[in-house]
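W.,

You were right to be curious about this one. When I first looked at the sequence I had no strong expectations either way, so I just let the prediction run and decided to look at it fresh. Below is the sequence, 573 residues in total, followed by the output.
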Amino acid sequence: MLLRKQHRLYFLLVLVLLQWEALAQLNLGGGSRLTGTTNFHYQFYNTQSINNGTGNIRQPKHLPQFSGIYNLHLAKGFDIPIQLYLRPVVQVNAFGVNTPAEGPKSLTILEYLSHPVNRIYLNPKYKNFEFHIGHFIQPYSELSSGDIKVFGLGFGYDAGAWSIAAQRGMIQPLVVGNAFNTRSTYRRSLNAVSFGRNLSEDLLISVSLSLVGDNKNSLDSVPMFTRPERSAALAVNGNYKINQKHRLFLELANTAYAPNTLATDTLREFSVPSILIPSTNVFAGFGLLSRSQHQFEKFKLKNKLEWKSRNFRTLAYPFMQSDLLRVEVNPSFSLFENALQSNINFGFLGSNISDPLIPGLIIPNLKYAGTYKYNKHLFVNGAYAFNAVNGELATGQRINTFNQVIRIMPTYLMEWMDIKHTITGIFGLSTYKNSSDFLPTVNQIRTTNFGIVYRAVYEQYSGGVSINSFTSARPQAKLFRNTTITLNATRRFESIPLSPYIRFTFTNAKSNIMNELTKTGSRRVFQCGARYRVNSKISSSLGLSTHYIKNGIIPEAPAFREFLLRAAVTYKL
């Protein structure tokens, strides 16, 4: 019945927005108006088994979605930005991974609106005041709170030299265990406050205090695998603008974490925020984060240093890795009269660094991305990345892995016979090697990727074709190969605001059978649709796609077909 209630809710929202626009055209106190965009999206999904073929059902059968971004401007400089995104709540059932089912049916309107899949957010602003209502992210501490999404209330006030902000809300909904999900979770809330002070035009200091806790009464009984948790964090950070080309950011954080608030108080490590967590075991930790940015004529340098002690816990994510040291150096520069643009990121991550007697890991990494423009017709994009893992397990066994990725994409642009041509080549190579002690032999896999993409544009017509081959192999033995061919075309009309499109994708899969690559399956994808602009305010789109997946090459081989229909209407106020 909830699905029907949600449909009625979408309909009422559309009516309200239409009435809002009509009111906004009236003179409501001198210049009041509502602007923004409304979008209603509906998709129908269906599957068909052929010769007992199976596949993952990835969508519910009916999925309406409503979204909108608005701004309500009232008199005397009072603005209310509004964001809405609403859709039915679905859950995974027992018949396979990613198999949505309608429900749960027992959600109240408040539980439905606060669910993480939805978003309703009002951001009223008036002079130096700012308010947050609904789903929002109001970060205070990068180390401890990060980008936690809250459903609740928040506000901020900026008085020039001084600023204050606070928030209160839910960050984890209640989940009641059932036959398919035995891990119940408590309703978890966040309370936080932050004070900031501009000591000068170039230096900002702020202090934040956050408290996260589970509502022990939100579940009728204590679940089998989880216990109510509680954590608190005190963070101090400073942002210093040395000059126009150099900036520095520094943060220190102290956290307290209680993994079970039902336990007796037998252990209490020292921390400043532990006073907020009485009568239970508390683990304490410290963290440090430093970032700097330096700008030169053709060179920019960014650095990051992060350290977390053993019992440091990020709020709301208590199982994130701690006792680590992370170092990153990120230079970017241009050479050869700006023909070459490069960005490099290299560093390492070390875990279990506080006690040399406890096994840990060292993970160095390097990433490079660059573009070289030879002339106005030819340019090349390239990327390289690697990471290695070295260390020791608690059993004394050594870990030694290596990953490497190379990607080169040359592109050639030209115009011939009034047609604009774009040709892009793709070459990719990745290698993986694992020589850890727990493996009987060295595991080594190499994958190669070759492809070419062609696109042509002539007046209102455009189309293209791409061919891509992906092969995975071990030394002296190929594992599998996938070859994909894609055709697409688009047409724009001048007399009517219509843009139809069509797309075909063909994929053949080969796998190693008796040390020989043999065709083992195929995939066929057909997509078509059109976009139509009714007038300056209303536009619509309609799309259809079918996926046909076959496991085998004989006519009677098992197969699985997916059918997806999408329709959308956009209305600009």
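Here's what jumped out at me. Residues 1-6, 15-28, 94-104 have pLDDT under 50 and may be disordered. And, maybe more interesting for your project: The longest strand covers residues 398-416.

Coffee later to discuss?

I.
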